[in-house]
Every structure is written in structure tokens, then in C-alpha cells.
Amino acid sequence: MSLQNEDLGSIPEEVQRVVHAVLPRGNTVTQLRDEFGVLYNDDVVRQVFPTRGRPAVSPWRLALVTVLQFVENLTDRQAAEQVRMRLDWNYALGLELTDPGFDHTVLREFRRRLLGTHATTLLDTMLTTFQAKGLVTARGKQRTDSTHVLAHLRILNLLECLIQTMHAALNDLAVRAPEWLAALAPPTWFERSAERVDASRLPKRQAARAASFETVGRDAFALLDALDDPVCPSQCDHNEHVALLRQLLARHFERTDGGVGVLADVAVPPDEAVNSPYEPEARTASNGTTVWTGDKVHLTETCDEDAPHVITVVQTTSALVPDVAVTQAACRASSSAARPCRPSR
């Protein structure tokens, strides 16, 4: 996808005539265009897109659609439908009534490119516009609150996590050094790691479960010993799943004269507990009656009674970080902060 230069232009006359007839007083969407113009221009996100390739939908329109999508809590598919069906959206986007719109997958690609390079571009541009309009003042009050962000993962118990981490490490090594791994690994490694842990039942009896722990531990230690050997290929280094496997083994196993021993009743601090090798940074936390595994997003907004409430800072942290820990940082990050922010109750 490439960025094509496009004149922002004006609202088509036919669209203006129809919208003013149907919505003589306007609505939030039309007022957004009337009060703030196009809000964005292609220069805001120009560096996100290459100059060659298939022509893209104008980025300023995609940016505005993203804002409207959030305001109305729409999915990508629903937002793309609104572009084709809504008169007020045509008005705000400066599109002809006959414009066919775009496929909903374009929005996902737009977000991916934007978040990968300039995650705060849209927010910063909006804040600058609001400040110019006097909606965000230099001495206004602010407050910080947070909400939870769920991780899309299946929470694994320790044995499942060890098996899956071994599975992930072998998969990575099979790509990096397939010949070395094929010569090293016995068939049982792949037999034990081939099936997803949620597709089979783990041992219920204590003795059988302990035996499974020891088997996984022996396999993992043998793999790490081979990786530590000087003849190991250099491309095997910097494997994040191998690093996580080392961490889990150091915490839950010990080498003994008889082989491998499992450390019982290990108390793992909440900020170090691993729930899945595929999202090792996801943490389990609680807030009142809400318990979740994932992250936390902290939102700072203006809260003056005589002005609209505007989000000024967005911060994503570990699920374990309390609101009060980010309040001062949010105040420093916000260009409109002059008095201390206060956590929302």
C-alpha cells in the first residue's frame, strides 16, 4: 500500500445540500467537520506509508474514520459500512454520495502501520487543535483513571507452561538451526511437544504428575546444555523462548545426583509470574471484583466543569501498576498540565 497525494478539498455541494436538509442542526459528526475542518492532513501520517505500491485510501480520511469508529464503538466492518451508508460521515470525510468506500481490512492495516511508528500522532494532533480552540487550557484540572486490557491467551498451570515453553523453544530452533536440532533432539522431544497441551489431559495422580515434571525438566536441561556447548551454532543465540525456559528452570528445578528435582512450594512474586510463553509480560491483577490477566491502560483527561472532557495522555503499563504510580508522569507528559493530576475514584 502506498500514499497518494490528494487535495483535501471541500465538502461536495450535493452532500452539503442533502445533509443540511436532513440535519438542519447538524450532529456530532457534522459539527466535528464544521468546527475543526478535516482535523488531520496527509502530512501527519505521510512517513508511515511507502511511496510505491498499490494506491491507498487517503490517510487523513482513515485517521478520521478511526476517531469516529472509537466515538461510536464500531468494529472495522461496521465503520466501513458507515462510510458507504451515512450522510454525516460523507460530510465529515468530504466524500461524494456515490463513493464506494473501502474494504474494512484497510483500517486494520492503517492501525498496524500507525502504531508501529507513531502511536501518539493522532492524539497529539487532536490536542494541538483543541488547544488552539481553547478547549484545553494551560491551567485546567486533570484526572487519571485506568481500565484493564485482557490478554488473548489461555492461562496455563506450571506444568502446561513448561511443556509449551519447551515446544516454543524447539519451534524457534527448528527455524534457526534445523540441521543442528535434528542431530541433537531425540524423537521423544518432538513426540512430547507435538500435541497442544489443551488437546490432551494432564496426569491427575500426584506421582504421575511429578514424573511428568521430571521428564520435562530433563528434556529442558539437556537442551540448555547443548545450547551452552561452544559448538552450538551462533544463530541459536537471542532466542526469547530459550531465555524464558532458563528462567522457569532456575525457579522451579534443581539438578541432583539422581538427575532433576522439582522445587516444591515456590512462591513466585506477582510481577515475575509467567502465565504463557507466548505473552510472558501478561500479569494477573485484580481491582475490586474484576480479576484479569493482561495489561492496564491509564487515561488522563481534563475535568473542568465548564469545558468538555478531553483525553490528554494514554499510558499502557503492566497490569500490576497502580493508578497513583503514573499520575505525576501523566502530568509531565501532558502539555496542558499545570496543577497536580488526581486519581479518579
Domain tally:
3
Work out the helix count: 14
Tell me the Rg in angstroms: 27 Å
Global shape? elongated
Low-confidence stretches: 1-7, 50-55, 336-341
Separation, N- and C-terminal Cα atoms: 45 Å
Quickly give the structural class: alpha+beta
Specify the oligomeric state. Answer: single chain
Range of strand content? 5-15%
Measured as a percent range, the helix fraction is 40-55%
Average per-residue pLDDT, rounded, comes to: 77
Count of strand segments: 7
Report the sheet with the most strands, covering strand number, pairing sense and barrel closure: 5 strands, mixed
Order of helices and strands: HHHHHHHHEHHHHHEEEEEHE
What topology does this entry show?
Blueprint: H1 13-22, H2 28-36, H3 42-45, H4 59-71, H5 76-85, H6 87-93, H7 105-117, H8 121-132, E1 142-150, H9 158-176, H10 178-184, H11 187-194, H12 206-228, H13 240-252, E2 253-256, E3 259-262, E4 283-287, E5 290-302, E6 311-318, H14 327-333, E7 342-343
Parallel strand pairs: 1-7
Antiparallel strand pairs: 1-5, 2-3, 4-5, 5-6
